[in-house]
Amino acid sequence: MRPSLRVSRLGSPATSLASVIPCCRTSHLCRLPRRLQSRVELAAPPARPPARRHFTSSRQRCADNTESEAPSQRPPKSRRGLWVVSTLLLVAGAYWTASDSSSHDQVHDDGSSNHRTGSSLNQETFVPFQVVARETVSPTAFVLTLRLPRVATPESRAATRQLINKAWQHGLWSIEVKQPQLQIARDYTPLPDVGDANVKSSDNDDVEIRIFVRTVPGGEVSRYLSQRVVGSTIDVRGPRLSFDVSSRLASREGSDAAPMGPAGQKQVVILAGGTGIATALQAAASVLSTSPSTSTIPVAILWANRLAQDTVGLEGGDASLANPVVRDLRALQAQYGADRVRVLSYVDAQRTFIQDSDVHKFVSGPGDHRGWGVSVWPFGSSTTPVAAPSPPPSASAMASAQPCVYHSKKTLERLESDPEYGSARACCLCKNASGRTPASPPGSSLILVSGPDGFVSAWAGPKTWAAGLERQGPVGGILRKMAAKDPKLAEWQVLKL
């Protein structure tokens, strides 16, 4: 019997060539040419769409199975997806933490803020202080008075008061003020209250902090503070202790220092630029308030400003015209005497600048016609020159045997601040020529340079950075050149503030 090729209609399941090939393969008479077999395969439609190789997953093929089959398990997510999800979770967690820690920094249109209250001033975290007063100094400068909010607990008030009182006893100190939107902070030196006490108290014995602020281009913190109104809150941290000027002078009440008279007393000269007058006032108040009543240590303040508006009222006249800073200067003179507190004013707009000859007038020492015996504008008065005796051993010479934190110039170059007053480290280590501790600390006359970085660098050289801290560094600038010519000035200590 002759084998035959069975052909079904197109679309029928039986059109597969595989169903008829077995019978044809039994005889060589039924074998078709390869071209004919290819045409038959092309003519016969498949029972289901062909699989697209390399692009169709096994999950898609499983979908063609009967519904009775169990669905396949979902394949694991790619590593890239897990990385994206993990990153988003970390970012969300960091944002939540930052939002939670600074939720009290949200500033409303009325100038108020959402703050967590009840904390006392400390050096680790920022706490809210309320703006209770704002006074204009010039078109670009003002004084803010800060106080703990009314909702603060009595314990917080007492702890804050104690901490600030200790800072005033130490000498120079500052606070950090935070700009909450950008999370940046800047140091401000509180102004002293020139009165019977160093801290200002209200009826509730609340400690107040006054800061002198100048709005400068690009200064985000100063711009933020310029927008604060009375009743709003500001985040504050501190205090940050700086230098103990009274211990460096050896002029504290109750110390073993010999009585200071015109013959051998120390002196303080302060070069202040702009808002650096806040540090000058703080240093002067510290020296004058902690020294014995018999002391006559003189303080000279040379204050440079760009505009004359900053010094309104400094020339005398109606006291009501004086701005808050000038009032403090005049009150300091009224309390301690114009002979002890000298003030010189310089204004860039009037082409008056601090000259090295002005500094020489005060570092030349008692008995020199260029020193305290001259009349100094605007609060000058004459004193009788006193002949200076043979100079005692200098503090730097006595500190050479063993580095003293207060009187060694090499040690000072590496310092950021002095030890806290009253601590175990707050002691003079000076030795005399025989290697013994002197009966009275030698002390050193001081030149303080305070103001913008350019002002400080021009007069005393730049500060240096080491181990993440800003340190004093060696003395440079104009004062270094002056010390090379004047041996008296070479014995003075220079503090960059």
Walk me through what this model shows.
By secondary structure, the protein is an alpha/beta fold. The protein folds into 2 domains: 105-241, Translation factors (Elongation Factor Tu (Ef-tu), domain 3, Beta Barrel); 245-496, no CATH class. It has 15 helices and 14 strands. It has helices at 21-24, 34-43, 58-62, 79-101, 154-170, 220-226, 245-249, 277-290, 324-336, 356-363, 395-398, 409-413, 453-460, 477-485, 487-490, and strands at residues 127-138, 141-147, 173-179, 184-188, 200-201, 207-214, 233-241, 268-273, 299-305, 341-347, 446-450, 464-466, 469-471, 493-496. The chain has a 7-stranded antiparallel β-sheet, sandwiched between helices. The protein has a 5-stranded parallel β-sheet with strand order 10-9-8-11-14, sandwiched between helices. A two-stranded antiparallel sheet has the order 12-13. Helix 8 packs parallel to helix 9 (324-336) and helix 13 (453-460) packs parallel to helix 14 (477-485). Residues 2-30, 38-43, 51-72, 99-105, 107-115, 196-203, 256-263 and 366-401 have low confidence and may be disordered. FAD binds at residues 186, 188, 221-222. GO terms for molecular function: oxidoreductase activity. Its cofactor is FAD.
